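Lab notebook, bench 4. Still working through the backlog of constructs that have no structural model yet. Next entry is a single chain of 70 residues. Request: give me the structure tokens for it.
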Amino acid sequence: MAGGRHFFPMARGEAFALVFLLLFSAVCFLPVWRQLEVVGMALSGWGMAALMVISPVLTLWVFRSGRRRG
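Model written out:
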């Protein structure tokens, strides 16, 4: 496998979802969001809670939409 590709091919939607989730999680862990509060909870906590909902929903949606085409 010298010079060959070592990864499985990734669909465009899957790559977009991966990059979006990585960026969103990086933003959620920024220290600036720990000091801002909304309804008594730090904004980083709200972001992480949203991440726990968005991550599986987005991933399932991307996988299901990819199967319909192929």
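Notes after review: The chain has a mean pLDDT of 84. The longest helix spans residues 43-69. Flag for follow-up if needed.
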